[in-house]
Amino acid sequence: MAAERIEVTVLLFGKAKELAGSDQATVTLDSVISYSDLKKTIFESIEGLAPIKSSCMLAVEQNYLTHDDLEIHLRPTSELAVIPPLSGG
């Protein structure tokens, strides 16, 4: 059975927010998705983010994701975030 397609709001912080020109975006995703497919879809769907793709982390429900996450379950109400590296100063 194929995963359902859902719309999820993606929160953008720091450089991601600056590049996208907004603090959030809506992306259509499979409700069950791997980390690599999730990251690929987000960075292809939100204009301007491609330059920072390799340095960003993703989080769902305030939990960081890793490449080891092979089956991420999302709902339309899931809190999904793109978190760029923090710089000190």
What is the domain tally?
A: 1
Low-confidence runs (pLDDT<50, min 5 residues)? none
Please state the overall shape, judged from the principal axes of the Cα atoms. globular
* CATH homologous superfamily grouping: Beta-grasp domain
Lateral strand order in the biggest sheet:
2-1-7-4-5
What is the element string, with H for helices and E for strands? EHEEHEEEE
CATH architecture field: Roll
Give a short account of the largest sheet: 5 strands, mixed
**How large is the radius of gyration?**
12 Å
| N-end to C-end Cα span | 50 Å
Question: What's the quick description here?
Answer:
By secondary structure, the chain is α+β, with helices and mostly antiparallel strands. It is 20% helix and 33% strand. The protein has helices at 14-20, 35-45; strands spanning 5-12, 24-30, 32-33, 57-60, 63-64, 72-73, 80-83.
